[in-house]
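Holo prediction. Input below; ligand is flavin-adenine dinucleotide.
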Amino acid sequence: MALRRYSMFAVAREALRFHAGWERAWQSPAPKKRYDVVIVGAGGHGLATAYYLGKVHGITNVAVIEKGWLGGGNTGRNTTIIRSNYLQDPSAAIYEKARSLYEDLSQDLNYNVMFSPRGLLMLAQSEHEMRGYKRTVYANNLQGVETRWITPSEVKDLVPIVNIDGPRYPVLGALYQERGGTARHDAVAWGYARACSAMGMDIIQQCEVTGVRTANGKVQGVETTKGSIDCGKLAIVVAGHSSVLAEMAGFRLPIESMALQAWVSEPIKPCMDVVVMANLVHGYMSQSDKGEMVIGGGTDGFNNYTQRGSWHHVEETTRALIETFPIISRLKMLRQWGGIVDMTGDRSPILSKTPVENVFVNCGWGTGGFKSIPGSGWAMAELVAKGEPGPLAADFGLNRFKEGRFIDESVAAGVAH
Amino acid sequence: MLTLTCPYCGVTVEETELAPGGEAHLKRFGPGASDEDFEGYLFARKNPKGVHFERWRHAYGCGKWFLAARCTATLEVFGTYPAQTTEPPAELIAKINEKRPNWGGWK
Ligand SMILES: Cc1cc2nc3c(=O)[nH]c(=O)nc-3n(C[C@H](O)[C@H](O)[C@H](O)COP(=O)(O)OP(=O)(O)OC[C@H]3O[C@@H](n4cnc5c(N)ncnc54)[C@H](O)[C@@H]3O)c2cc1C
Ligand SMILES: [Zn+2]
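Structure of the complex:
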């Protein structure tokens, strides 16, 4: 399908003809009998994998199969924080690759993903956190990730609504990433989907994968609610449902699925133009373009597939944030929702070959994989195309658990968004 | 909010009084086990969309560990039982068989 580009000229042209000329952003084809690569899951990671398979590796006989609607999983439910200030080298590499791809993703996709590098602060509210973040700054400087330590008065300059003096948790400084920020989550999924469709790939929605067909330890295809589809390679990119798909393919993953929630307040006038994370009290906040305060906290502790979280989290997180941001105490909270996140023990993702030949998994992004979508898709495409991980994915294989080679980000960030 | 009955105290409490402890009935492997068995014990999880057997601790009560059978797709609780056992009670299995004929067993 030839793509009609979005541009200033296109807007002007359509303005003159009652906007009747806009075409569908992507096709909705019936599945073909066979694809070189089938990707299960049309979230950001699945779609980005497809996009870079086509763009970087020239593989376009690809289907992305989605049981609901594209971007309807965690990709459309997150709080859109983008940062790359992780502690461990392999994390910094893949998250910084993603962050840097976000910088010109709108131009690359010809779709406005509204990347807003407004700056991101992680408040240090205890002695321990202060030392931890200074250590992260040093690590980031060695890794080539630009972050710096800022003092309480610099924090106050950037975030006038923050309460520096406590009462319980005074702000002792912050880890500041100036080029961190947010993007429009739906637009990321839609932009990739449109670009994939334009390359001739099939995005098949309302189609659930119900089985994985193998022979002699090698993948043959998948069973779906729209029939049987053959494939040369299979990429499982389904976040919270990774264990379910792995079970179909006959192996288990070191993953537990849990609910993570977010909520937004009524819209108010602009009052905070950076993203602030307060990990000690387990909450974070940013202001959306509509003016809502976007708030999130930690996950529930038990296995859950219902996309509904426990109420007490909303209460606890909001209560904690009120101490740090007293002005939100009178705000009405408007909406609350949940997503099912795929948690690994070391809080790092899995990009890996599997016990089944030609089956690859990309999962375990847990509470923090929106920021990594472009980098993850880039690395996953390389893994699927070549059958072996490239430098970005190499450390994130399933073998790291057996070898005890964890990429421990659980201590580095109490709230890992 | 999830509520569970502590089999020791007999009280039904909200989840804020409890601490979740992950998959139950894991078979332990230790020194002398193969790498595969040890890895499986430490990391591989069933994480089913459906009936899940799991550990809970009555953290702000008697402090003891107990076990529960719960559906992760609906949050329905089938029952709880003391942790001093290697397999779920027969009545509980019968109850789940009735409610979820295709559930596939607890192992
Ligand atoms: C409340 C919340 C807040 C978050 N905040 C942040 C944040 O601020 N910053 C950040 O970086 N990350 C954040 N995250 C995490 C981030 O949203 C996820 O890591 C990321 O979106 C995962 O993308 P994905 O493409 O892997 O999964 P998803 O977007 O969930 O896509 C997986 C898709 O697979 C489909 N699927 C599942 N099973 C099947 C099947 N059998 N057949 C066909 N399709 C199937 C699903 O329907 C789904 O659409 C947050 C998550 C939540 C829930
Ligand atoms: Zn008790």
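DSSP finds eleven helices and 18 strands in chain A. That is the main takeaway for now.
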